[in-house]
Amino acid sequence: ANIGINASHFSNGSIKKPNYGLNILTGGFGIVYNINHCSTHQTSYTEPLIEKSRWLAVITGGIKETKDSGGSKYGIGSLSVEYSKLFKTLLRYGASFDYMYDGSAFVHFRENSIQYRSRLKASKLGLTLMGEMRLDQLSAFGNLGVYLYNHDKQIDLFYQRVGLRYRLTNSIYTQVALKTHLNVADYIEFGIIYILN
Fold it and tell me: Is the peptide bond before 18 cis (omega within 30 degrees of 0)?
């Protein structure tokens, strides 16, 4: 028997406005019974490489639209350094330090009459706690973070990131993730990951 609770979020990740996100919470219960007790053919399987402790360099990028529909699109990007440790066989936990750049911040600066001399004013620094669940080469992860440096006052103090990773080689992953502020989608990011150790 198995039981589970699922949370789903549907949106376009602010690539185009309006972005009416839809959140759905569902539950499920199931029973599994094996009628045929005969032995099945076993195929060879190679267990993927699993590091007990792991350092990652994560580079992501994307675009977002802010304010009204049909407005300009702005580039976003981030560079993160992540450390995690293995917990059990399929789970990891750890932390990351994030540098983020959001070009749409200048729209908020103009609205709030915030002066800036450099485009680096749109930079943000953050620290997150993370968890990851692996299924063969694919894994799902989530981050809960707090901004350490942020001049965009229209952005909440806390942020989240949920997404998927796929291991291409022993040293490289790809990643797609949704960055949010509580239940408000900020943007979708696509990235590449390099294992430092």
Answer: yes
Distance separating alpha carbons of residues 98 and 23, to the nearest angstrom: 27
d(CA 103, CA 71): 13
Q: How far is CA 134 from the centre of its chain?
A: 15
Task: Identify the bridge partners of residue 59 per DSSP, sorted by sequence position.
Answer: 79, 192
3-state secondary structure 39-64: CCCCCCCCCCCCCCEEEEEEEEEEEE
Q: Which of 13-17, 23-27, 109-113, 128-132 has the lowest mean pLDDT?
A: 13-17
Distances (CA, A) of 136 to 2, 18, 28, 165: 21, 37, 24, 11
What is the C-alpha to C-alpha distance for residues 110 and 84, in angstroms, rounded to an integer? 39
* Predicted confidence (pLDDT) per residue in 156-188, tens digit: 899 999 999 999 999 999 999 999 998 788 899
Name the token pair of 79.
Answer: 């560079």
